[in-house]
Design brief:
Blueprint lengths: L1 H17 L3 H8 L15 H8 L1 H24 L4 H16 L12 H11 L1 H18 L2 H20 L2 H17 L1 H9 L11
Helix pairs in contact: 1-4, 1-5, 2-4, 3-4, 4-5, 4-6, 5-6, 5-9, 6-7, 6-9, 7-8, 8-9
């Protein structure tokens, strides 16, 4: 019974941490327009980059990654079981997607996803980031780079860990990321997706 109470407690705390919006807070502090009201209306690093500049985008990116990484890292250091680690990562991610502080309307989850996977397995996280960087460098399309990387990551994690719990949690997160990118996928199919460094219209 105590184990399940701890699991619920850790997952709940991870959700609250994940609900913090690095994009909204960073833009407010730096006097930049709320990312929910400009560009793609998404409170994420890519939209902040287009309308707030590199510094604000980097701060947003780091913040979003840390809120996925820190909760998972903490329970891992506490030697929690695999199911707890998987659920903590999942709920930190869900906090970003459906933040309780912002009417459950959050970002697309990419940076928080990477933070979670880096904490679960840094080797898999590094591979995922390298795939993103490689695709982004060649094609200059952030959303496509993220989708390719996040599609492959659960398979890579399974290869390294053979963990049903961790792989299932990450696969669910990947599905949610694709769902949150449905407009981007439509734009990609139409050849209209905005490239990195360009302003959306």
């Amino acid at each position: 019974m105590e184990h399940y109470l701890n699991l619920v407690l850790f997952a709940g705390l991870a959700y609250l941490v994940g609900s913090f919006s690095s994009a909204i807070v960073t833009c407010k502090i730096m006097g930049i327009e709320d990312p929910r009201n400009t560009g793609s209306n998404n409170p994420g690093a890519t939209n902040v980059l287009r309308h707030g500049g590199k510094k604000a985008a980097i701060i947003t990116l780091i913040g979003d990654m840390l809120k996925g990484l820190i909760p998972v890292l903490i329970v891992s250091l506490l030697q929690a079981d695999t199911l707890t680690v998987a659920l903590v990562g999942l709920f930190a991610f869900l906090g970003h997607i459906f933040p309780v502080y912002y009417d459950f309307k959050g970002g697309k989850g990419v940076a928080t996803y990477y933070g979670v996977i880096l904490a679960i397995n840094w080797q898999v996280g590094l591979i995922a980031l390298l795939v993103w960087l490689g695709v982004a460098a060649i094609l200059k399309i952030s959303s496509l780079a993220a989708l390719v990387s996040i599609f492959l990551t659960p398979f890579i994690l399974w290869y390294f860990s053979q963990s049903v719990e961790l792989t299932a949690a990450l696969a669910l997160m990947s599905i949610i990321v694709f769902w949150r990118h449905k407009k981007n996928i439509q734009s990609l199919l139409q050849g209209a997706e905005v490239k990195i460094g360009k302003s959306s219209k």
